[in-house]
Amino acid sequence: MEKTNAKDNATLPAYALDDKDLAILRLLQQNAKITVRDIASQIHLSTTPVHERIKRMEDSGIIKQYVTLVDHAKVRKGLMVICYVSLKEHNKKSGAKFIKTINELHEVIECYNISGEFDFMLKVVAENMDAYYDFHVNKLSQIENMGHLQSVFVMGIIKQTHQLVN
Amino acid sequence: MEKTNAKDNATLPAYALDDKDLAILRLLQQNAKITVRDIASQIHLSTTPVHERIKRMEDSGIIKQYVTLVDHAKVRKGLMVICYVSLKEHNKKSGAKFIKTINELHEVIECYNISGEFDFMLKVVAENMDAYYDFHVNKLSQIENMGHLQSVFVMGIIKQTHQLVN
DNA sequence: ACTGAAAGACACAGACT
DNA sequence: AGTCTGTGTCTTTCAGT
Q1: Domain B16-69, CATH 1.10.10.10 — does that match?
Q2: Any atom of strand C under 7 A from CB of B51?
Q3: Where is the HTH asnC-type domain (chains A, B) (predicted)?
Q4: Are B16-69 and B73-153 the same fold in CATH?
């Protein structure tokens, strides 16, 4: 069935996406629940090739996940904070420990290794300022090897999209 | 915390979510394509109440959107940059103009109004450094009223989730 | 690679407890 | 609010072009 083993598919494009693949991705990015029939009619194809193309993009990891987005404020996570972290020591072991801890903190929804004066950038969500203060003082600050910490508060969301393919 | 407009109900929870609603949200956040039957069996309910609860959460805006996530590198958007922007003037009109322009730039996938020395934080994706340089010089810098600009490069993704409800 | 048809799984609505 | 049952629509497979 499959030509290549999809084990080591972490970096490079698995194959060249043609215009029809990109059209499918454009539609799926906006609405994960669009029907195969609907896609098929919009790109002037029958369901079978559309279904096969989606399957191929799922198997090759181009399509990573279908997720449901929830309204921040309505689930009581109205406060968003960008948090900068630098560690005291920069050896492999302490870095790995930090990463493990971050992955266990559900308030942290994103974490990036960044260039510049800080080591990491975190996106944190909390119900309100009290909850964030508690998180900052009792969880973040308590991480071993923690160096400097700086919080930048998000006052408004101007744009938020997951549309990588345009 | 987000500002409220008088005409929309964007801020407050529409109603109290019970444990079953939260259980449904937890499953949907991880997989938008999970079947109602599957959810029903996992939370020990039949399909009808699950279906009704999902519908209610969609209608009230708690569930915002079902999206498909695509692998950055595999669609040739391997470079992620955090970009800080300050405007020269801070009147309402120039702010609105900036927001309009940002929404038209498909390289910008997120934009927040932030506290601190800069006005906005942008998350930008590009194929490579050449593409980002072109975006920076020919698009971002050319925006009228543009003040200071600072780029922070993402060297590694430690954590990325959309799981707001835990 | 694609079309068209056909089987099985599913969402969704109705009658009822 | 919930279960059970039925109907129409969908995904998914298969034979054929």
Answers
A1: yes
A2: yes
A3: 17-80
A4: no
Instruction: In whole angstroms, give the CA distance from residue A49 to residue B145.
Output: 48
Are the beta carbons of B98 and A61 closer than 8 angstroms?
Answer: no
Cβ <8 Å between B31 and A67: yes
How crowded is residue A163: how many other Cβ atoms within 10 Å of its Cβ? 14
pTM reported for the whole predicted model:
0.93
Biggest CA pair distance of chain B: 58
pLDDT in tens, A53-95: 999 999 999 999 999 999 999 999 999 999 999 999 999 999 9
- Look at the domain A73-153 and name its fold: Alpha-Beta Plaits (3.30.70)
Indicate the domain borders of chain B: 16-69, 73-153
Q: Which residues pair with B150 in a beta bridge?
A: B84
Residue A58's closest CA among A24, A19, A20? A24
For residue range A91-150, list pLDDT tens digits in order. 999 999 999 999 999 999 999 999 999 999 999 999 999 999 999 999 999 999 999 999
Q: How far apart are alpha carbons A125 and A108 in whole angstroms?
A: 7
Q: Write the burial class of residue B35 (CB in 10 Å: 0-12 exposed, 13-18 middle, 19+ buried).
A: exposed
Using CA atoms, how far residue A78 sits from A1, A2, A153, B4, in Å, is 48, 45, 12, 12
Query: How many Å lie between the alpha carbon of B43 and the closest alpha carbon of chain A?
Result: 18
Looking up tokens 């006005």 gives B119
Nucleotides of D under 7 A from a protein CB: 1-5, 9-15
